Automatic annotation (TrEMBL):
Biological process terms in GO annotation: mitochondrial protein processing; mitochondrial proton-transporting ATP synthase complex assembly
Family affiliation: Belongs to the peptidase M76 family.
EC number, UniProt record: 3.4.24.-
InterPro entries noted in UniProt: Peptidase_M76_ATP23 (IPR019165)
Disordered as annotated region, ranges: 1-22
Name of the protein described by the UniProt record: Mitochondrial inner membrane protease ATP23
PANTHER family: MITOCHONDRIAL INNER MEMBRANE PROTEASE, MITOCHONDRIAL INNER MEMBRANE PROTEASE ATP23 HOMOLOG
GO molecular function terms listed in the Swiss-Prot or TrEMBL record: metal ion binding; metalloendopeptidase activity
Keywords associated with the record: Hydrolase, Metal-binding, Metalloprotease, Protease
Enzyme class of the recorded protein, top EC level: hydrolase
Gene: LOC112273065
Species in which this protein is naturally found: Physcomitrium patens (Spreading-leaved earth moss)
Length: 194
């Protein structure tokens, strides 16, 4: 699963933890799928790559980890309703996880237990999803002027790869360092960072 937000937990309304209800989460997913140009583009890219997806590819769960979503190679994209509250969070989470789906589709030998493979996909997802946009970083309290985007991509990739049970934080850091240049500069299926 991709770590999407450095969220803190709190109790929510109607018996749901912080976040939104599964019904509202489903509404936001549907809105992203029908209106968000980046999400629509990624769905088209998956189809062109031989991996068409439909609405059943997207699931809603109450997640125990503080993540907005995840990609499960045999199941699809999961959005954690208890960890998202706004449409923009769902848009970014779907984009992030669809990038993992795209990587899984285009790389026949992608092994998610391999720290370098996982690191590459996390670098790409953090770089291309909008997760490291200036506004999101500002809201997280990260305001470096120089290279903020790269710092964010590295930090977010480390958080995500560090959640992989096969990758200690030391192995995750090393894997990110080894694949950084290639994966940070790989913007497929986009022509450039959106």
């Amino acid at each position: 699963m991709g770590a999407m937000d450095d969220a803190t937990s709190a109790s929510g309304r109607d018996g749901y933890p912080a976040g939104t209800t599964p019904e509202n989460c489903q509404r936001m997913i549907s809105l992203s799928l029908s209106r968000n140009p980046t999400v629509k583009f990624l769905r088209e890219a998956l189809t062109k790559s031989g991996c068409p997806i439909d609405e059943k590819f997207f699931k809603i769960e109450q997640c125990s980890m503080k993540v907005a979503g995840g990609f499960k190679q045999d199941e699809g994209v999961v959005i954690c309703s208890n960890n998202v509250t706004h449409q923009e969070e769902v848009d970014v989470a779907l984009t992030h996880e669809l990038l993992h789906a795209y990587d899984h589709c285009r790389a026949a030998n992608l092994d998610w237990s391999n720290c370098e493979h996982h690191a590459c996909s996390e670098i790409r997802a953090a770089n291309l999803s909008g997760d490291c946009a200036w506004k999101r970083e500002l809201l997280r309290g990260n305001t470096n002027i120089q290279k903020q985007h790269q710092i964010c991509v590295r930090r977010r990739a480390l958080i995500s790869v560090g959640l992989n049970p096969n990758c200690s934080m030391l192995r995750a850091t090393s894997a990110i360092d080894r694949v950084w240049n290639t994966c940070y500069n790989d913007t497929q299926p986009f022509d450039r960072v959106p």
